[in-house]
Amino acid sequence: MKDGIWSSLGKTFWIVPYIVVLSLVDIFLATPGSGVLADVLWYGVWGRISSGEVQTIVLSLKCIGGIFLFAILFGREMAGYFGSVSSVYFTRIGSRGCFVLGKAGRICVFAITYTGWFLATEFWIGIRQVADRHMGVRTVYVLFLLEGILGTLLVLVCLAVNWLSVRLHVTVAVFLVFACVMVLEYVGILFFDSPANVVLNPLCANYRIVEDAGIACGKLAANGCYLGMLVLGMRFHVCRMDIF
Fold it and tell me: Theoretical Cys-Cys bridge with 154: which of 18, 111, 142, 230, CB 3.0 to 4.6 Å?
């Protein structure tokens, strides 16, 4: 039901072999070019998506797969407490609300670590593809954006899986959340250049986010709002559900 913190942090390392396996061509066949490291990192994570060209969705499957690997690894982080042992466990804690907040915070820590491994691996792969390996301010800025955007996206998906897993089997929960993610990805491609889509759709990774600080702040704020609403919704549900 509950893994130790170090055991759970260790599971975040699974993203490294996943990225390496899917990037073997880039690792062994890529030659240094005239590209910019910041751009290589951004497109390495999200894929090169073209406006309205739905077939390009395959180029972002590495990222989507990484998101769902995280959801599978930690999809029972909270939901594992709701079952045959729930009546025993929840009689021993003072507040269900604090339980939800604590588990959400724990998932956030895992997401930050997981994203860190993800970006470190992509950085190692990306730096082999550029002749100019200077890590300038723009590269640091892109890494910060990727940590914030991808990290909150991981937490959103994982919390959604946990919430649904309270009532459903985790496999069903992952499938339902995956379907929602694919719909958002589809919408993100169809309306790729729409300002509202760029800011409000968590699955839209238009490069304008990097070029416009206002859009970047709006994107991070929107993801933060979604995260806050999801946590509050889970807290409300758990505090009022019949466990005994």
Answer: 111
